[in-house]
User: Fold this.
Amino acid sequence: MYRILPLILVFFLSLSGATIVSKANADANSFSIEDAVFRPGISDRPGVVFFKLSNISDKDKTLISAQSTSAKKIEIHTHDMKNGVMRMRRLDALTIDANTSVHLKPHGLHLMVFGYTASEDEMSITLHFETEEQITFTPEIVSYGAK
Ligand SMILES: [Cu+2]
Assistant:
């Protein structure tokens, strides 16, 4: 009996895991991600992620967070001009209107990656939306100096 119980638990855990995966696959139909690039920071400075995020659904979608198992924290940032100086500012959320795209690019919107641990050659990032939809992508890792 004591041996069977953990097995049953594992079975139910894997069942719920499977549900999450299929939901994520279905949700992936609402979005497309193109030209995703991750530039790790030099030494322990934060890195940045750029990509084009398209909302290919008929409803507005709001990005509320991003995470990666290879980073301590990922924030949504934009740039503002203040007194003639370009400054980064953290956003709590980023809405992509129905059937439009946003471009995360240098000097504009970006994801800021803190505490990147380059333990593997690839990094996957999961975006979480207000609707509980999520999409995972793997940006190309490009170091500074490279183009
Ligand atoms: Cu930033």
Summary: The two ends are 60 Å apart (CA to CA).
